[in-house]
Structures are given as C-alpha cells and as structure tokens.
Amino acid sequence: MNGVRCMMMRGGTSKGAYFLAGDLPPSADERDDLLLRVMGTPDPRQIDGIGGAHPLTSKVAVVSRSDGADADVDYLFLQLGVEEATVSDKQNCGNILAGIGPFAVERGLVAAGRERTSVRIRMVNTGGIATATFPTPGGVVDYAGGAAISGVPGTAAPIVLDFGGTEKPREALLPTGNIRDTIDGIEVTCVDNGMPVVVAAASSFGVTGYETSDELAALRDRVQSLRLQAGELMGLGDVSAASVPKTTLVAAPRDGGMICTRTFIPLRVHTSIGVLGAVSVATALLLDGAVGRDLAAFPPQGDPLSVEHPTGRLDVAVELDGTTVRRAGVVRTARKLFDGTVFPRSAA
Ligand code: NQM
C-alpha cells in the first residue's frame, strides 16, 4: 500500500497531520477519502488511524507555496470528524496555524532567517493573511523555548501570530447585521473575527459558566438548536454537518482575566478555547451592546485581552477603529512530533 509523506505537529492546543498539497491527490473528493482513512474516521476511538479520538486531534493542514504577492504559503485547514465521516473546510484553525511557519521552513518552501523567520500565510478557508514569526537560530527551526501556553505542559519557543492588515468592517464582524439576536429565548451576539461564534451568557443556559467541560455536556441539545438557527442568521446556511458556528458561554472572570468562557466546538466542550474563537469572542466584547460586555473586566489600554477557559487563559490582542478591526494577534507554540510516511487504511 502506498504511504503519504506527513508531519505530525502539535499546533497550540491542537494536534494535526501536516501535508504538502503536492503529496495529496489533486481531487478534493479523493483527498478527503484518503484523509479519513489516515485519521481512522469514522470511529469514536480512531483506532485504525492517527487521529486522537477528539476533534482537537483530528485536524489536517494542507500547505503549498503561494502564488500571490502578499503571502509565502497557502494553508488550507480541514476539520475531520471523529464518529462521522466528515471533512470540513468551513472553518479555519488558529492553533494548527501555529505549526504552518515551521512546517514551511522544514519542507523548504520558505528560506529560514539566521535568527528568526517570518512567514506570511494565506489562510485559504477565510482568505485572510497571518504572519508567523518564530526562532530559527542558524537557519534551523528551534521548537524549544520559554513560552508557556495554557493547556500544554512545559514551555516551548514562542510563535507570534499577527493577523494585521486584514481589515474587517462591522458587516463582516456581525454577520447577522445585529449586535444582538434572540434565539430560543436566549440573547446572543453572533460574531466572526476569524471564527464564526455565537456568544451567550452562561446564566441564560441556567449554568454558572465555571463548570467543567464534562458538566456542560448536558447542554448539547440546546446548543445544537441555538447554533442551527444562528448558522442560518449568519448566512452559513444549514450547519448541521459543519463545525461552525462555535458557541461560547461567557461569565464574569474569576482568575484575573477579561472574561470566563466555555466553548462548544460545535457540540463537544473545548478543553480550552480556539485561537480565532478567542479573538472573535474578545472582539465581540469590545463592541457596545454585545452580550456579555457587562460581565467583562477590561484591562488597561494596550494590555492583552485575557480570555479565561477551562484550563487557563489565552491572551489576545485586538485593535479596533470604531467597529472596524485593524489587527489582532496572539502568541502560540508548536512542536514537530514526527516526520515520515503515514499509511492510510485501505479503501473500502
Ligand atoms: O479557533 C478548535 C482549536 C480550535 C480552533 C475549534 C482554533 C481557532 O482549538 O482558531 O484553533 O474551535 O474547533 O484548535
């Protein structure tokens, strides 16, 4: 059986299989079929593949040299289902994004600088550009360093992700056209600053917002009803098989951050929060009238916006000009786990 060249990386608080586009079949249907067999989907344990039996470890990055002047590489993110045989390109992933710059250098798509390297990445799913900057002493990616991120043990080299230069006007930021909508009697703010998210107060679901991920599993059906209707209002159509929108329940911070969050992705509760999910929630709270703004404790101007989640905090920077987003940024880490050949399960 033919194997496929693949690098497995931890990107932020996610883990995924990174491929060069040229190593995968050019037809999207054939590519998706192959990737499902690589991951071991559909199967709750993904026992016959390299997936980790959770949406956060059932992720794929497809990378190629960019032909646009404004980017060095193109990054297509694919979210694979675990129990269901789904492959979705309807969302981006800011965690897997953290591994793209190092991967591009490792594969020779971008020449490394002597101290550090910046890689301009076109995020194919959304059309935006991110710049990743990371240490490359002596022209080699160095994954070791002193940056800690909540949800990952130990420390690693910082990878600075900058989403500058992608202006987002109010219409794009608030895809329903409203700062608030009411769905199933629950007030929500539907926002998209890189990730479509429905923000609701935890109290409107009858919970505190400080529960563990497991304790919130009982809200699954209500969250599903909310997100299906929100998807229509946000112009995403029928989202029953899509991994977006996410739903974030917010509560007052209790750990020195700006806001406390619990996020459904889209139905399992995230062990932390996605990068672009956190950027989107923080952006919403900066807008007058947003659901949850009254719960937020804003830091002094210029300090990061610290989003509390079940395993710590994720600090983001968001720059608004009125209701237009000028830039956003975040620090992540990533690590090469293996580089080699993956052997997919044989086709049925
Ligand atoms: O929001 C999980 C993750 C993500 C997405 C999810 C992400 C992001 O933690 O940018 O990173 O929301 O499905 O990897």
TrEMBL record:
NCBIfam families: OMA_tautomer
Record keywords, A-Z: Isomerase
Pfam families: PrpF (PF04303)
Highest taxon above the source species: Bacteria
Coiled coil: none
Keyword Isomerase: yes
Family affiliation: Belongs to the PrpF family.
The name this protein goes by in its record: 4-oxalomesaconate tautomerase
